[in-house]
Prior knowledge:
Number of strands of chain A: 24
Distance between the termini of chain A: 35 Å
Oligomer: homotetramer
Function (chains A, B, C, D): Catalyzes the formation of phosphoribosylamine from phosphoribosylpyrophosphate (PRPP) and glutamine.
Radius of gyration of chain A: 23 Å
Cofactor (chains A, B, C, D): Mg(2+)
Helix content of chain A: 25-40%
Protein name (chains A, B, C, D): Amidophosphoribosyltransferase
Active site (chains A, B, C, D): 20 (nucleophile)
Number of domains of chain A: 2
CATH architecture of the largest domain in chain A: 4-Layer Sandwich
Binding site for Mg(2+) (chains A, B, C, D): 302, 364-365
Number of helices of chain A: 18
Amino acid sequence: xxxxxxxxxxxxxxxxxxxxxxxxxxxxxxxxxxxxxxxxxxxxxxxxxxxxxxxxxxxxxxxxxxxxxxxxxxxxxxxxxxxxxxxxxxxxxxxxxxxxxxxxxxxxxxxxxxxxxxxxxxxxxxxxxxxxxxxxxxxxxxxxxxxxxxxxxxxxxxxxxxxxxxxxxxxxxxxxxxxxxxxxxxxxxxxxxxxxxxxxxxxxxxxxxxxxxxxxxxxxxxxxxxxxxxxxxxxxxxxxxxxxxxxxxxxxxxxxxxxxxxxxxxxxxxxxxxxxxxxxxxxxxxxxxxxxxxxxxxxxxxxxxxxxxxxxxxxxxxxxxxxxxxxxxxxxxxxxxxxxxxxxxxxxxxxxxxxxxxxxxxxxxxxxxxxxxxxxxxxxxxxxxxxxxxxxxxxxxxxxxxxxxxxxxxxxxxxxxxxxxxxxxxxxxxxxxxxxxxxxxxxxxxxxxxxxxxxxxxxxxxxxxxxxxxxxxxxxxxxxxxxxxxxxxx
Amino acid sequence: xxxxxxxxxxxxxxxxxxxxxxxxxxxxxxxxxxxxxxxxxxxxxxxxxxxxxxxxxxxxxxxxxxxxxxxxxxxxxxxxxxxxxxxxxxxxxxxxxxxxxxxxxxxxxxxxxxxxxxxxxxxxxxxxxxxxxxxxxxxxxxxxxxxxxxxxxxxxxxxxxxxxxxxxxxxxxxxxxxxxxxxxxxxxxxxxxxxxxxxxxxxxxxxxxxxxxxxxxxxxxxxxxxxxxxxxxxxxxxxxxxxxxxxxxxxxxxxxxxxxxxxxxxxxxxxxxxxxxxxxxxxxxxxxxxxxxxxxxxxxxxxxxxxxxxxxxxxxxxxxxxxxxxxxxxxxxxxxxxxxxxxxxxxxxxxxxxxxxxxxxxxxxxxxxxxxxxxxxxxxxxxxxxxxxxxxxxxxxxxxxxxxxxxxxxxxxxxxxxxxxxxxxxxxxxxxxxxxxxxxxxxxxxxxxxxxxxxxxxxxxxxxxxxxxxxxxxxxxxxxxxxxxxxxxx
Amino acid sequence: xxxxxxxxxxxxxxxxxxxxxxxxxxxxxxxxxxxxxxxxxxxxxxxxxxxxxxxxxxxxxxxxxxxxxxxxxxxxxxxxxxxxxxxxxxxxxxxxxxxxxxxxxxxxxxxxxxxxxxxxxxxxxxxxxxxxxxxxxxxxxxxxxxxxxxxxxxxxxxxxxxxxxxxxxxxxxxxxxxxxxxxxxxxxxxxxxxxxxxxxxxxxxxxxxxxxxxxxxxxxxxxxxxxxxxxxxxxxxxxxxxxxxxxxxxxxxxxxxxxxxxxxxxxxxxxxxxxxxxxxxxxxxxxxxxxxxxxxxxxxxxxxxxxxxxxxxxxxxxxxxxxxxxxxxxxxxxxxxxxxxxxxxxxxxxxxxxxxxxxxxxxxxxxxxxxxxxxxxxxxxxxxxxxxxxxxxxxxxxxxxxxxxxxxxxxxxxxxxxxxxxxxxxxxxxxxxxxxxxxxxxxxxxxxxxxxxxxxxxxxxxxxxxxxxxxxxxxxxxxxxxxxxxxxxx
Amino acid sequence: xxxxxxxxxxxxxxxxxxxxxxxxxxxxxxxxxxxxxxxxxxxxxxxxxxxxxxxxxxxxxxxxxxxxxxxxxxxxxxxxxxxxxxxxxxxxxxxxxxxxxxxxxxxxxxxxxxxxxxxxxxxxxxxxxxxxxxxxxxxxxxxxxxxxxxxxxxxxxxxxxxxxxxxxxxxxxxxxxxxxxxxxxxxxxxxxxxxxxxxxxxxxxxxxxxxxxxxxxxxxxxxxxxxxxxxxxxxxxxxxxxxxxxxxxxxxxxxxxxxxxxxxxxxxxxxxxxxxxxxxxxxxxxxxxxxxxxxxxxxxxxxxxxxxxxxxxxxxxxxxxxxxxxxxxxxxxxxxxxxxxxxxxxxxxxxxxxxxxxxxxxxxxxxxxxxxxxxxxxxxxxxxxxxxxxxxxxxxxxxxxxxxxxxxxxxxxxxxxxxxxxxxxxxxxxxxxxxxxxxxxxxxxxxxxxxxxxxxxxxxxxxxxxxxxxxxxxxxxxxxxxxxxxxxxx
Lengths: 490, 490, 490, 490
């Protein structure tokens, strides 16, 4: 059946992956139920594990699971098991082998100032370096998550008020992160000094909500208020919201990948409709890299808005030429390769009647390793296409991320290693085109990229990282990246 | 959260449902693995239960499960547990309360002529009447499935050859059905005298395959040969295919609902691309019921091809205005109402940026009870639409099915009880339109409907049932519909 | 660790096994709860599967499980899931490979006369012969259980009243059996014409109870009334008990193995305390086969009463020299050999302080294959015994059972193949002794065995089978024993 | 069914419970398999959770479960999942509500000196006081187990060698404890300065084993070498055993409850056969509190040796008058009261034939709250006893434990609150007797109790606690006992 594996495979297996989505709510009766709904709306940001912590002002409750929110939290009313009027929640994708329950967030600890729970989207780029120093001082680590480093820093901070300690911890760490935390009295939200990872504030009657995307607000009927600012800490309690500035000179520079791939199309990010930005990418792509074809076919589902934009710009018919099987087993969250080999390529098939004898343009949001693109091209050719052209609605991905996006290493990124001609040949297509970095900034509504201080985090395309990468440099210099040698079987 | 339930709900909860998909293969080494792949491709025809039976020519093996094929059969190689070169399989949707494992197919029995396994898509309209007569003669029934009646008829038939007994049983039953059966020597396929339910023959090297749709052939790399004819029995063994005519005067009259909703868009049914037929429905719908709107939004996913057809016919922009959450838990296969209340409306949300301030045309494949349509309309309005118009790509559904489609009773079918004006008011839309029955026949490539002998089974729209409905009449006359009073807890 | 396997092993692995226990109750509010308690008391008669059926006079409910009663029925109130005032229940041991849920009892069928459920302890010795004839007439069998044959015979019987049909079916079958059945109106109990398998009647206020042993009555506070007679059918309904005689010339001849091993020591069987009978076996054993030893050690748990009897008769100290680990996993119900190899020998250990340097007499209820006895002897020697003597509280087992007892075939029965001297050598003991058949009858309170018409079923010791063995003879003559070639994976 | 609850109940529900058993092995190929076998032998010391940690000298592996060893570790070869030549393991009983996986041992932490795993039997009486101080310094606690305090003390100790740090930590804690720990290089064992909790050293060819009882050595074929001394630390590595003295003036004073109830009868504790000591308790009990009765009946299973001792001393017949149902579901490890109400009293029944019309003496190992004793007495009376006398083979329990034994508070201990006459009345017996404290010392082989420096830890009978009880005093003084307010749902 090797032939089969080429013509009906998994389009998602070469996607990059967000590591997390976070959610928080203060001041509703059954906070856990709102958290479950909000996390469900954020499920696309991480499908491997999920957790909720609540407090009623004295007792904390936590519940953490491997698997989907909808399988773990919606069966019964979660707020019966997790009472309280404050809740935080987390969805997570993680690399294989480390997915044990002790790494699932929110993490909880008893500090001298009382109980504290924390959920985190992003990555701290000097976590291992800090951890080494802490362990040397006798600190005990229970997880391999970088989030725990933050809790240790808070626990050991000398500040009087909780907020002081929290800000003190933030100032010791580098990276891209959005935190949602909770004491027995308040809900806390914070964003790194560049605002790399997103965090938004919403309002639900008299209550406040924090979430990674606006789609979580839509799910529970909350109103979007504003974004948490770059380097800002917000503390929500019975008296309302207070704002603290952790980094006075913070410059906002949100990650473009939220627009390219991560965010749900119906979310508003940085004040922009993700769906509209993606259509504009397709529109600009049509201008930059035209194609003489009969039909435009999106690579489902993330290629759809750009393909529509391309089609509307050119007048060429848009058709669903690749059909997705919605009833695939949960194979894409199975960590074993055996499962991937067996189940994962069962997800998509070609719609022959829209392809046979036609010149086809495939539009995808991006090209990572190129392996899946090649399989798609072969599937389309096997369905009888006369020509196959391919367009990426984002620029060539040439540099790895270090802020919480799971991505192959640089030697696996096709655009980092091959020319356009080579890639055209490798993908076996008649033509290949990428959106330019200028085109991407145009789609974002900018006239041009301010090279000395870019308006967005765009290192994957440009190599321009906003923060130092201390753990990375230490690792390259031969320093151990990983202290833990524990393998937990169950 | 009652507000929430209006603005983010489950579009599928008012769908009608196919009850089954069937598959069979003769002459491959690991027949069960092919059956698992084929059933996976047919999963859209039934998500509640699945089963496979195999034989190696002497021993029979069966494995039956509640749940999806991909969760039950693809984890390991199924042909290790289910050895053999002949396999049949079944996917099933069923009404709540009866989903116990003993009703899951394929059913197996030892006949005097040897072991026999049977899987069935459709419904036998005189099953209860026959069952009563058999029980009176001392026959024991173990399931409440109508399929078991057929096995009893075969067991009690006097014919010498197995085929004679099988044909004899077929001649005693009315209804719409596609059978895939298996003895230790052969694979059997059969279709009712009108060919209401589909069954197709494919070829895989030297082997033969039977399936409800061509997408199952695509999945395993088999070539589509031909349909099983109306009233035909095919017997496949080592010598190839033999054909028997159970009903000499059979007139082919396939069910239109395969095109309207059931079949996968990439399947070829009755020689036609389902995707193309659906686009033609949308095209004709645009001609019959034009609308002065800014944007065309499909009700996902089954409304997409018709919406594309409508948009291409009119030049009005097609946009994804309703976003589907792919990570919904398995709530739609949960039988309890509690789960439906909690989880099921978490599936879709409005893409506000494509709706706000616009005149919107929603296109769906059909309208059943109208309850979901109303919820969708409200969701679109809540997202800021200036006007909302609604179009059904099929004619008004006025009559229930009796051939294996799970559908509400007549008093719940909105079009059976209300005028177009009333429905426009009930759905709270600015205009409402349905495809005409003539339009539907046109989309199918027919010039007109031959009223004295319709080319298709279209009773849901016309009340014109191809077969007698004996059990139904008996029930209306006060006769018991159901012999069984057993409730099986587990 | 091969040494380990000798010195700490499973004493139960060479036990013979009862196949079933049955229970029925008529006329209590929550009949299923009484059934669960009664079955729990009968759990020693079968640990592999259990089931309960109830009726409230119109609807029947059934629930059947693999595993223990206490794991499946006591967690919640079973009568909530299984409402009704009549209940029957079943516990079962069965040979590996056939333990699929469809074979678990009670079996339910809809007859022309209405619903009927049946549970069965014992074995029908002409079941396969009858089944062949029925299948030839077109009867469909769903299980491989001999119990289903009885239901088919009832279904096809021409009698007018249900009782006539039931008696007619009984007269067509041979074997040792106790039936507990149920229609929507009545509870039925029946015993084979020799009363080989036990069945007793109890009273619970105004209600009636049927059970295999009195310990089930003690559990629920019911009073023992009388045994069902050999060949008697009792029908219990709102008017009380009616008795029918299926076999006018029935001669009572209960199975001695109930006393030797099966029945719980606190049960009263055939009017005798099982515990007292076992002590009398030990007392007589001491007289017949004295031993010059320092300490008497029972093989736990079934050897304990006989060892006490031996010790009291001789004045030699009785000590617990073998300690049982109560926390063994459920390995003894695991069918795989791998599990047995790994887990099963973890059950017992030697109490060295009572053994070291002593002359030890081991007393067990019986010796079957001798393999376990040998392992026990080695364990006792490894703990430092100076001499080891062995006594069996029953006579040599030389003939297999055919009435529902799971026992090795004749070539595996040590006493059927070897002399006392050979066995003494094989068991590696200093002396070996068995109770005589006369001694066993004496322990039962009889003066002597009436050889022409024995008072008890004793064929395992004497070869004297009370009934014809038609299936067995047919099998020996080359006729197929088994029609079914189905392997059900799950 | 309230009547039922009196006559067939759970004898174990009023038992006191050991909290833990520990095991360690150094220098075998598949250390985890030995640990699983050893823990299985120690299962009677804790049935609620179990865990194993291993190391191969570089990577650590852990696996922790709720439930029995035999259900979690013996199915497959545990050493495949848990490779390594060093292993430690733990079985645990714990109070309801705290049984979440994060509290299950062994606990693992990365220290500055490398990975470290620890398992613990006993209780640290100043753990909360130390924890408060550590949290104030910024230490993070992940479990509510007192064991974690020890790991923090090791992590923060300034010693150079690991052993120095370990001894330093031990010197900061009070209580009764036996530790088994493991670094990547060595296995560590330690016992509190009074040797309250047991720990023994065994030898398996060239390897060493540590365990709570000798029965764990018997299970794997290891030879018992010696006890770990009071206040001793043993470190086992490739060079053999080294011994360190944590407390120079340690005085050995092992806990008498190991003999009264906890240890398995076939274990050798403090050089004495537990079975023999228990028989001597019964023998002395017969001398101290004679009874004019017809039969001696043990309360199973822990009352058996003392009842045998009583019977042999007096010549009165010993009979099994209470029968235990071995097939009870796992109800006794279910934490909910509902389960206890339903299932737990299904465990025992009276053997009427040995009781009816007789004067019965019941012998149990101890009396805790007296509630179960009363139920047993009622069950025996309901079975027809003419008189019922009761003897406890240990002295009256008047004081709670603080060293790892789960026991009711003082106001629930019957002997702490009532006179012998009152208890005789409350238990509804004709006479009641306890072994004297002198009798208990005699049974232990001592001539008399040295009151100024008792040879054994006997505070439950005498109130004489060997260590300060700092947490307890702080709690009585109004200081919080518990820092953690976290409830973990799953």
